[in-house]
Design a protein that fits this description.
heterodimer; A: 292 residues; alpha+beta; Ribosomal Protein S5, domain 2; 6-stranded mixed sheet; 4-stranded antiparallel sheet; 14 strands; 28% strand; elongated; B: 248 residues; 5-stranded mixed sheet; 30% helix; globular; Ribosomal_Su5_D2-typ_SF (chain A); rRNA processing (chain A)
Amino acid sequence: MSREAPLSVAERDFILKALQENTRLDGREADQFRPLSISFGEEYGHVKLQLGKTSIIVRISAEVTKPRDDRPFDGLFDISIELTAMGSPGWENGRTSDQEASVSHVLDRVVRHSNALDTESLCIVKGVSCWSIRADIHVIDYDGNLTDAACIAVMTGLQHFRRPDAVVRDGHVIVYKVEDRVPVALNITHKPLSVTFNSFNDGRDIIVDATLKEEQAAEGELVIGINSGGEVCFMSKFSGAPLDPLSIVSKVNVALEKVKALNAQVDKVLQVDLAKRAKLGMADESRAANDR
Amino acid sequence: MVGPTASLSNLHRADGSASYKCPATGFAVLGAVNGPVELPARRDALKPEEATVEVFVKPGNAVPGVGEKYVEGILRDVLSTVILRREKGLPRRGVVITLAIVGGEATERGDSYLTLLPALLHAAQLALISAAIPLPMTLATTLLGVTRSGEIIRDPSPAVAKAATSLHAISFSSKGHLLMNESLGRFDFDTWELVRQQAATICRGAATPGSDGDAAMGGTDNAHVDGFVRETVEDHLHRDYNWKLESI
């Protein structure tokens, strides 16, 4: 079975010693994210996110299906993440790894179970038809902190995505093409994001947004899912060295600050992109070749 | 017609990578190659004297199904013929090719992957070149649709492909071998022969027997696919060896 190349003893010692002196390999502060860049594809809900050297593509899609029998008023929402050999040679194609399971668990909890996407608004006809929203995550380059990067990308994708308009007329569901009617944005109730902390040196040094090397040298991991309003919707401390409860409380505040900053950045790129699209749409309308 | 665009080695972690985008069909594919790697999990399936080629196709926004498995088989067969699997260092190793569909319309369940084959093959091939896997020749692939009136259309858009009576994905090596012939729909042999001739022109330029095929290169109007592959790789090499060229 292939796996990530382990860190050498010298590298591990170097990282730990440097952290004791409050220095990180790339010169960042302990609670500083790597530069985040988000761009969009041609279609709605196609997000390309780059966090340092970690790079992810998310595609959101929608189709009409039958709701589940026990929840006739709810639409469906799925997040699928599959780690392929493209992201890292340590991942094997067609085989689920522990990392894949843990990332998909966090995403499930932070985005899906916190009801960030209002699934009731996806219902078209009770018990007969509803929208099924699907988020596909393609990890194309992996350099640590997959969870946070994927979380930001999925949330950005959901906010960017527009589903076709559907109406019910005489008991029939009519789905309008994107060209025929302005597509509708999804109903986002709140914007939670996850922030992953890694602890070193018996919990004395705790950093955010670890690179792959820092992750490998870490002794423990703490994931906090929180929205801009300061409501914690997920917290996990599965394994690794114990952490002081006080530091967890203080890290929640750090996470809140980070989530606010990240959400502000996401909002900004979204607005820029939507303005660009609106302008393009106007240009299309006013073109002479446009058949009216 | 707007030609396809491609770029090489745009990922950090994979040994080789390439992205390929075809504006006519709207498909964008990202390819990554890792190799030669150890494949200990399936030791019994390894041949003692040659490398194993593994292909994995990841759909853009759908659950992977039988369609992907089927197209993986086709890609594996075609790419196995252009990889020098007995070269030194390759036997008993694996060449893992991962292709992610990152743009274009979703293929419906049960739909054929024929329309995607050229994009997938080109992305895979350019990624192989980027990973420096030994290849004796390159390949050029094209998709042709035959409409109800018998007209042959190059790189049909998804809507046109759906309405076509038959679809053909044809692949030629840079030495002129017919490497792949996948067809769908109803057609007779005469139609296929016409399609093959046109595909040969598209893939390899004007059919001039005996010439080495570099006469039509550089033209934009009648640019052939083989030339496109060549130019992409040339550009990439030029950038890679820039330091060397500067010092001469």
